[in-house]
Amino acid sequence: MENVQKKGYVIHRFEAAESAPPLKQEARQERPVILDEEAQERRSRRIVTIGRLAVAVLIVALWEVLTRIGWMDAYYWSSPSRILSTTWTQITAGTLLEDIAYTSSSTILGFVGGTLIGSLLGLSFWWSRKFAGISEPFLILLNAMPKLALAPVLVILLGIGFFSKVALAFAMTVVVAALSAHSGVQSVDKDMEKLMYSLGAKRHQVFTKVVIPWAMPWMISSLRINIALSLAGAIVGEFIASSHGIGRMVIYAGTILDINLVWVGVVVLSVLSMVMYMGVVLLEKWLSKGYGMKKA
Amino acid sequence: MKTKIEIAGVSKWFRRDGQEIAAMQETNLSIEEGRFVSIIGPSGCGKSTLFNIIAGLIPPSTGRVLADGEDIIGKTGHVGYMLQKDMLLPWRTILDNIILGMEIRGVPRKEAVARAQPLMDRYGLKGFGGHYPAELSGGMRQRAALLRTLLYDRDIILLDEPFGALDAQTRLTMQNWLLEIWEDFRKTVLFVTHDIDEAIYLSDDIYVFSGRPGRIISKISVDMPRPRHMEDTVSASFMELKAHLLDLLSDGGTGTKVHIS
Fold first, then answer.
1. Which of A63, A84, A270, B174 has the most CB within a 10 Å radius?
2. Chain A contact for B162, CB < 8 A?
3. Side-chain half-sphere of A176: how many Cα atoms within 13 Å?
């Protein structure tokens, strides 16, 4: 076949055989190299898990050994075995479990209340730009203010009981939740609202069918930060004045120089914080259900 | 034929930096029932402003807008509206997106699904009802968006550059698909595009807008017989009309050049 000359263009002679000559017989018998990406992925995930465990074991073992041979002073640094045995006596002879219940319930109450009310406040900004405009600087001011400094006031106001801790946890979380929901609301696609109105939707329908689900990922993203902030609020509340809770236990242990017990408090709080964090991750998963966009 | 939409002396002005700026100069249009009408013009000529006015989303500065003889200024819900972006809600399945308009009107879900299902099967979305928008290609998403508009059950449909974001190949498929639907339903369609080929291939009438501030400079009726085929787009009369439109757009008052794909 020859090239065909037309007016204004040329059709070139083109055969597949010419551009890609067939493989020679011996080359064909070689097995093609196919990357098994899934197996590689599995392998690397296994290595990561093993690595994490190894690091954890190493840290605990080093801590134990170094305090035993005296390279680290066991008086200040305690040791994993001492922390374990002190924890056990605190559970059996002391009030550790009640303290854990006290601290976690004030944390969770403050977290739930702060997140709900803050999110509602942030969402409400969608209804009126004027209302949002007036409120915004105050919200930013509240966000900048170190809420923990309010702790003494709250304790004096609400007493040394349970509710001053809840109030502090609430104060820590409410502004973050409001700001997150507000960003979510601001990100709603104006064209999406337009489309809803063109379909004859009323404002409350736009709000429930578009604005709330649209802002959901923003609100969800504030949960992880808020659970940690809430715990910090509850503990500081207990530091100031309290008759229960892990925070009180730590402060008490510090004043009687029982550093072992301080370490128990630190470890228990870390575990508590991690458990709550995982709870929040589960909550996130549940709330994100139906967000098909996650798949892409 | 009956006049479906009547637009008389409609204009839109904005005040910016103390100056009055026209987004759209006085426009008169009268669209007959069941016609496929395209509006072409350079970007920023007020095509979308006109659509927003017809959809009742913004009020015009002057003039009247009538649908079936009824004043629809500032009234939403009289026309189906579709934008360049598919505007599907990402957390809803395709089926739930398609029935959104009916849901807003309060149609029971069962009934809405019963109406949507056959349309999805017939118009290329069979088996996709349970998928989420993110799992579909751009063309498929636009199909879903158009079916949603269609199921909103208005006689008038406004399509604002619905295929503008699609690649050329998909766009051709979608144009034929749209024609098929239009021939089945015979709705009055108002179609904004800046693709001249698309306007000629699809339309009965083409209104040509000038550059900013927009005004209508020409109305052209396309007599090509229907159903139309891809080959028609390379016929001599098609080329002639295309050349004419290119001419109109390139010195349409402002000298703005138009991109053709």
1. B174
2. no
3. 24
Rounded CA separation B165/B160 (Å) = 11
Interface test with B, best of A199, A202, A208, A294 (most B CBs within 10 A): A199
Strands of chain A, DSSP E = 4-5, 10-11
Quote the minimal CA–CA distance from B104 to chain A in Å.
Answer: 6
Q: Find the CB nearest B83 among A195, A197, A292.
A: A195
Q: What is the pLDDT along chain A (296 residues), one digit of tens a residue?
A: 577 787 778 888 776 655 555 555 555 566 777 888 888 999 999 999 999 999 999 999 999 999 999 998 989 999 999 999 999 999 998 889 999 999 999 999 999 999 999 999 999 999 998 999 999 999 999 999 998 988 899 889 998 889 999 999 999 999 999 999 999 999 999 999 988 998 889 999 999 999 999 999 899 889 999 999 999 999 999 999 888 999 999 999 999 999 999 999 999 999 999 999 999 999 888 887 766 444 43
Residues of chain A positioned with their CB less than 8 A from the CB of B152: 199-200
Give the strands of the sheet with B62-67, arranged side by side: B19-32, B3-16, B62-67, B70-71
Write the residue in A197, A200, A293 that is nearest to B91 by C-beta: A293
Judge residue B127's burial from the number of C-beta atoms within 10 Å of its C-beta, 0-12 exposed, 13-18 middle, 19 or more buried: exposed
Tell me the C-alpha distance between A257 and A269, whole Å: 19
Rounded CA-CA distance A164/A171 in Å is 10
Mutate to test the interface with A, among B87, B95, B103, B135 (most CBs of A within 10 A): B87
> Residue A21: is the preceding peptide bond cis (ω within 30°)?
no
Those of residues 5-64 in B touching chain A at CB distance below 8 A are 52, 55-57
Identity of the residue in A192, A198, A209 whose CB atom sits nearest the CB atom of B81:
A198
Q: Which two tokens stand for residue B61?
A: 């500065």
Q: Using the beta-carbon criterion (under 8 Å), do B87 and A195 form an inter-chain contact?
A: yes
Give B110-147 pLDDT, tens digit per residue.
999 999 999 999 898 999 999 999 999 988 999 999 99
**pTM exceeds 0.90, yes or no:** no
List C-alpha distances in Å: A260 to A77, A80, A263, B111: 8, 10, 5, 68
Which residues in chain B have their CB less than 8 angstroms from residue A199's CB?
Answer: 76-77, 81, 100-101, 104, 152
Query: Cα A201–A203–A206 angle (5° rounding)?
Result: 65
Contact A86, A250 (CB under 8 A): no
Q: Which two tokens stand for residue A126?
A: 């969608």
The rounded distance, in Å, linking the Cα atoms of A113 and A260 is: 34
